[in-house]
Design brief:
Radius of gyration: 18 Å
Strand order of the largest sheet: 1-4-2-3
Number of domains: 1
Shape: globular
Number of helices: 5
Strand content: 25-35%
Order of helices and strands: EHEEHHEHH
Helix content: 25-40%
Largest sheet: 4 strands, antiparallel
Length: 136
Amino acid sequence: MRGPIDYIVVGFPGNNFRGAILKELEKVSKNGTIKVLDVALVTKDRYGNVALVELTEPDLAKALDSLEVQDGLIDEDDVREIGELLENGTSAGLLIIEQLWAKGLKKAILDSDGVLISEGRIHPDASRELDRKGGK
């Protein structure tokens, strides 16, 4: 049984990807919060050319190996779609992650004959409204 699977696309001005993100992914993977199923870095140069960046730099490759990335889930269509979203001279990281923390909850729901009726996500930027409604 799998937990919920999400994709996340994070944009960066220029091609300034830093290793801090991989370190945090490594941390939450090791503690069982998520599993990184696949990851890609897409760039769009100043002329509008889109490319998938091979993550072969030794430090990046080592970090990805430690994540035990499944690889192969992200394809050319995904890269093209992300490229359409990017401004020239920017880049984006694409993550496909499994929410491992939710597996036990999912099992409990299924074991109780619960049926998923709806699901969604409230973006973190909406937290002020949530805090206001919750009285905080």
